[in-house]
């Protein structure tokens, strides 16, 4: 029974990590209760990046005149004027739902880490940071229902940065906890490769977030963000493939910790 429970625990941990790393949004046909309150208090690009990334928005554009210069006809130079296209107004699309929801991912991680906390204190830390992730995710989702305009924009940005930090920190504690469950020379190579893979996952998670943020108005960066996200998922699967080579050690540590707590 403990063996089945341990396998289910690892499976929940894997699914939870995949839910955090992978985002796949679909439209629901529902709409937010209020329109976005456009403001000139900050540049339109900054507003649009935050609202589009978190709440599925679109925008329209306007042209603004730039500087101009002129000289006499004797010099042979003609009048030069410039115009730039900038974001004008921002509008919500329909409300979207993430099929691999971060809320579900953190919930699975909390359940798994509470089961594994007897093996390492790192899992207790991971369950705490995952709980913080649940709260931050809930705040981000709820913000547009009672905030609007520049206040929503700033709150979504700073809470979003905190959410990214919590995601990376949670993954770090999980990895360190798993390493403590398979100590010794026999698992040295697996720990080394898993550590390097985790560095790639953490770096790509941060890069994909900023690429998708800036890519709200830059298709090339948006495509780069999607590519980095796909690579991150592949790295997660590779991490677990390497880690599962130490499955017997992980299971033995789990059984010994369970017996010592009985």
Would you write up a description of this structure?
With 262 residues, the protein is of the alpha+beta class. It is built from eight helices and four strands; from the N terminus they run H-E-H-E-E-E-H-H-H-H-H-H. It has helices at 2-21, 44-55, 102-116, 121-142, 149-181, 188-214, 219-243, 247-261, and strands spanning 25-27, 57-69, 80-92, 96-98. The chain has a two-stranded antiparallel sheet with strand order 1-4. Strands 2-3 form a two-stranded antiparallel ribbon. Helix 2 packs across helix 5 (149-181), helix 5 (149-181) packs antiparallel against helix 6 (188-214) and helix 6 (188-214) runs antiparallel to helix 7 (219-243). 31% of the residues are buried. The mean pLDDT is 85.
Structural class: alpha+beta
Oligomer status = single chain
Largest sheet: 2 strands, antiparallel
Radius of gyration: 24 Å
DSSP strand count: 4
Strand residues, percent: 5-15%
Largest sheet: spatial strand order = 1-4
* CA distance, first residue to last residue: 15 Å
Number of contiguous helices: 8
Series of secondary-structure elements, N-terminal to C-terminal: HEHEEEHHHHHH
Can you tell me the overall shape? elongated
User: Portion of residues in helices?
Assistant: 55-70%
The overall pLDDT, averaged over residues, is: 85
Low-confidence region ranges:
none
